[in-house]
């Protein structure tokens, strides 16, 4: 009986598996054309400096306008791009475009770009960054790079040297999604980050899980001792904003301030952030 069922399961899953692999294969073919067909667009999401009550930075979040599927999430296509070796050219386009966009923003507002671990293994990274800053006229201090713990997993001397060279240009380095990877603390010792971004899962739980609050408190205290900024990710309500401010976070990011939006919406996002600071808005921005 088990054998019969097993055979039935096999027959049932095989075509479905095929369909999924087909879909992935088609997406891969489309992704190979996407850059040349100018289907990528950078959305931006503000980070609020909690000491000054002003937007300090916009994070660049990549979107793919697929001709038939609409907007595809980076959660879906970034891993695929990493697998098929496209992340380096796509990532280079993001760095150049983000610097060009940021060069026209109000004085003092920085841009943060996410980097894939694979970009660190490319010898071109440093010259791409230097080239993007030169071409845009954006000061190095106005560019921030976000890397996750996985980028440092290899933690080779080459990775460290690359980070140090980028840092020497004056570019800021942030650790993204802190608390979700491995051996977080040893990375903070091996490299002088400018900022720690506390993963949104801790912020979400802060209202009813004591251990999440304890972790936020510990990270902000650690950050302040090490001279690093601490950003709370995923702040959706005025209560959460108040909470992370009281726990010592120096920056907040999340749907309360704005969802990620196209570059043309920067003025509207600055306006909304001011209304949040004034206490006139306490709910997350609706999905558009
Ligand atoms: P991330 O760098 O941690 O970016 C934050 C993600 O959280 C974004 O998702 C953002 O839209 C979402 N988010 C922000 N505030 C809130 C909130 O209040 N509530 C909730 N539920 N979500 C919030 P997104 O834009 O889908 O990006 C997902 C991930 O894709 C990013 O996570 C980043 O790891 C990656 N990614 C995006 N753009 C790029 C890129 O240009 N290069 C690389 N290598 N990775 C990218
Ligand atoms: Mg990020
Ligand atoms: Mg993050
Ligand atoms: Mg994330």
From TrEMBL:
Which species does this protein come from? Mesorhizobium montanum
Q: What is this protein called?
A: EAL domain-containing protein
Q: Which residues form the EAL domain?
A: 24-274
Q: Covered residues of the complete protein? A: 553 to 840 of 862
**UniProt keyword terms in alphabetical order:** Membrane, Transmembrane, Transmembrane helix
């Amino acid at each position: 009986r088990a054998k019969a069922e097993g055979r039935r399961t096999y027959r049932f899953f095989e075509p479905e598996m095929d369909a999924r692999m087909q879909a992935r294969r088609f997406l891969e073919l489309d992704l190979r054309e996407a850059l040349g067909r100018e289907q990528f667009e950078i959305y931006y999401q503000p980070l609020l400096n909690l000491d000054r009550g002003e937007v300090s930075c916009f994070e660049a979040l990549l979107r793919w306008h697929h001709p038939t599927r609409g907007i595809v999430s980076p959660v879906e296509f970034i891993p695929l791009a990493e697998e098929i070796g496209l992340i380096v050219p796509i990532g280079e386009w993001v760095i150049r475009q983000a610097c060009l966009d940021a060069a026209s923003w109000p004085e003092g507002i920085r841009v943060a770009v996410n980097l894939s671990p694979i970009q660190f293994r490319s010898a071109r990274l440093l010259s791409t960054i230097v080239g993007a800053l030169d071409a845009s006229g954006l000061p190095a201090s106005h560019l921030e790079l976000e890397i996750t713990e996985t980028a440092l997993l290899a933690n080779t001397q080459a990775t460290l040297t690359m980070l140090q060279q980028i840092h020497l240009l004056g570019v800021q380095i942030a650790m993204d999604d802190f608390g979700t990877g491995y051996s977080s603390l040893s990375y903070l010792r091996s490299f002088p980050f400018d900022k720690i971004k506390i993963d949104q899962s801790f912020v979400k739980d802060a209202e009813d899980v004591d251990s999440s609050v304890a972790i936020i408190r510990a990270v902000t205290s650690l950050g302040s001792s090490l001279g690093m900024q601490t950003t709370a990710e995923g702040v959706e309500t005025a209560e959460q904003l108040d909470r992370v401010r009281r726990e010592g976070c120096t920056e907040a990011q999340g749907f309360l301030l704005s969802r990620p939006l196209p570059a043309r919406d920067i003025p509207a996002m600055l306006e909304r952030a001011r209304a949040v600071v004034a206490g006139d808005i306490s709910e997350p921005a609706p999905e558009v």
